[in-house]
Amino acid sequence: MTSGIKKAYDVVKPDEQWRAELSDKEYAVLREAATEPAFTGEYTDTETEGVYSCRGCGAELFRSDTKFASHCGWPSFFDPKDSDAVELIEDRSYGMVRTEVRCASCGSHLGHVFKGEGYPTPTDLRYCINSVSLRLTPARS
């Protein structure tokens, strides 16, 4: 996990371009670290097989075989596509200590990761991700 040190991202866009490419809701979550309301996201209960990519830059982040039903109101995954796909940053906002999950390619806010909540997953982790930060590409049949 990194501290508040800003890293150089592979995908860098001026703010005007982010605003032009993203809807207001997408911009608020991806670029301002907002959270979409629970149980409102497009992928909360989706069981479609495929790959979840960053809505901001298209980088592959998660696969459907690591998604699980956490019943928390947001899509949950127990592992990213690979360890370099996401960046973990300490988040001390709102009087809490959490771990923020960002896209490692463009720095967009995705959600948070939690450990030790008792879910029966191989990693004991729950990547709690905003649907609006993702785009699902279904697997070909």
Would you give an account of this structure?
This is peptide-methionine (R)-S-oxide reductase. It holds the Pfam family SelR. With 141 residues, the chain is mainly beta. The chain has a single domain, classed as Metal Binding Protein, Guanine Nucleotide Exchange Factor, Chain A, CATH 2.170.150. It is 11% helix and 30% strand. The protein has a six-stranded antiparallel beta sheet. The longest helix is centred in the first third of the chain and has 9 residues, at 24-32.
Give the structure's gist in a few sentences:
With 141 residues, this protein is mainly beta. The protein is 11% helix and 30% strand.
Key attributes of the depicted protein:
Metal Binding Protein, Guanine Nucleotide Exchange Factor, Chain A, 30% strand, six-stranded antiparallel sheet, 2 helices, disordered N terminus, three-stranded antiparallel sheet
Secondary-structure map with pairings?
Blueprint: H1 15-21, H2 24-32, E1 50-54, E2 60-63, E3 67-68, E4 76-77, E5 86-91, E6 98-103, E7 109-115, E8 125-129, E9 134-138
Antiparallel strand pairs: 1-2, 1-9, 3-4, 4-8, 5-6, 6-7, 7-8
